[in-house]
Design a protein that fits this description.
By secondary structure, the chain is of the alpha/beta class. The protein has 6 helices and 14 strands. Helices cover about 25% and strands about 30% of the residues.
């Protein structure tokens, strides 16, 4: 598995390109600058098989429409509870931040549920439902890597005071992550990467969740 990290947009959302040896890839959270993403894929001769969203906020979905035009065979997937955010620019928080709302109104999505598995050649991407930041937030587990979106950051967690946020649900999700066997590399939606073991030992929110 190859992982490329590409910060995009004015909030520095981490877009991840996960690719198999064959060149098939998954684009996780293309929040903005789709031309930057397509340039990378084209330069590496990668084929987009999936566009995967950890949740439906504007800074994680802004590049989706243009990427779907560029890669019409790619499957777009998001946690079922956040599908409504792709169809409502107020719920995705795009309404007050952008003049053009069309890029944030998206169709053709496939709903994801806890335990779903997506195949990327020899790689398996497993879906974990992790509500709290949003209703339908998910993390993606692939090998020894977790792509945690805005559920879990290095030393922090996503805010729970926006539409669909719920702090009690966030604590349940953090406990679910912390109870995974073994250690994982942690790739969050913003900021630097971490490890699950580091967060178990140092993240105050995980300590509260496990308390």
């Amino acid at each position: 598995m190859n992982i490329a990290i590409m910060p995009v947009g004015f909030l520095g959302t981490n877009c991840y390109i996960v690719s198999a040896e064959s060149g098939d890839c998954a684009i996780i959270d293309p929040g903005a600058q789709p031309e930057k993403i397509t340039s990378y894929l084209d330069g590496k001769k990668l084929k987009a098989k999936y566009i995967l969203l950890t949740h439906g906020h504007h800074d994680h979905i802004g590049g989706v429409r243009k990427l779907m035009e560029a890669y019409p065979d790619a499957k777009l997937a998001i946690g079922e509870g956040d599908i409504e955010m792709l169809q409502d620019s107020k719920k995705s928080l795009a309404f007050d931040r952008y003049d053009s709302k069309e890029d944030f109104l998206i169709e053709r999505e496939e709903p994801l549920h806890d335990g779903d598995e997506l195949k990327l050649d020899d790689l398996t991407i497993r879906v974990m439902e992790t509500p709290g930041h949003t209703i339908g937030g998910v993390c993606y587990v692939c090998g020894e890597a977790i792509f945690s979106g805005d559920t879990l950051f290095r030393g922090d967690v996503g805010r729970c005071d926006l539409y669909g946020g719920n702090y009690k649900e966030m604590l349940k999700s953090l406990k679910k992550l912390a109870e995974l066997d073994g250690d994982y590399a942690l790739y969050p939606g913003h900021g630097e990467d971490s490890t699950l073991e580091y967060e178990r030992k140092n993240n105050m929110y995980i300590a509260e969740a496990m308390g």
